[in-house]
Amino acid sequence: MPNFQFDEYGAQDIDRTYAGPDIAAQREYVLSLLGLRPGERVLDIGSGPGYLAVSMAQAVGPTGAVHGMDPSPAMNAIARARGADIPWLRIDDGDALALPYSDDTFDVAVSTQVYEYVADMPRALGELRRVLRPGGRALILDTDWDTLVWHTADRELHQRVIKAWEEHLVHPRLPRTLAGLLRRAGFTVTGQGVHVLFNPELTEDSFSASSMKTIAEFVPGRQGLSEADVAAWLADLRARNDEGDWFYSVNRYVFMATAP
Fold first, then answer.
1. Cβ distance 97 to 118 under 8 Å?
2. What is the pTM of this model?
3. Which parts of the sequence belong to the Methyltransferase type domain (predicted)?
4. Are 178 and 140 in contact (CB under 8 A)?
């Protein structure tokens, strides 16, 4: 993950964001598409603070198994604590480019907001295919950051901030090529959809509120942005809210596929 590491502090921020209503709604969307059945074996690639992994473990029950996997020790510590009372849930250390599992291990694999950080997508999808059993199904969800609509008065400054923010990603527009990448990796693409994160107002627990904080911490010194520039960007956004003009929307695209 370039220039963006989930240390203990960052992992706690992500944990708070994932507890909010916007990402909770995204989890429900993902779970509805998966239709998990009791007894299935599931892999969550980039499981982060473990909310989705716990929900999937509850869905497959004690006759199934869920493995969450993440390269961040801080994230894994949070996830292990969250799922400590579920014996059939394990949180493993690992990387999307070298999954620490045997061939044909899982019935289902999920990756949400992960592959946009992975440089070698053919290799990552090859690993995904390797660990899925024949006929196993995969779900991938990632953001196209060109879909971000965020009302500001100073459009030039805002564009500089977002361009700097995209430096934390390898593939800020990954969904445009994901279906083709999956097909070239040998998968059959069975469905595509979109989940919109939409905040018509700024609330403390909204995704846009946490985004403001995370972006403001990341972008100073990038694209020529100073601390004063970032403070001005934040002030502009808060003014839009104070004037009743808050608008934030971004699209996350989901791809369903089956392994050969």
1. yes
2. 0.94
3. 43-140
4. yes
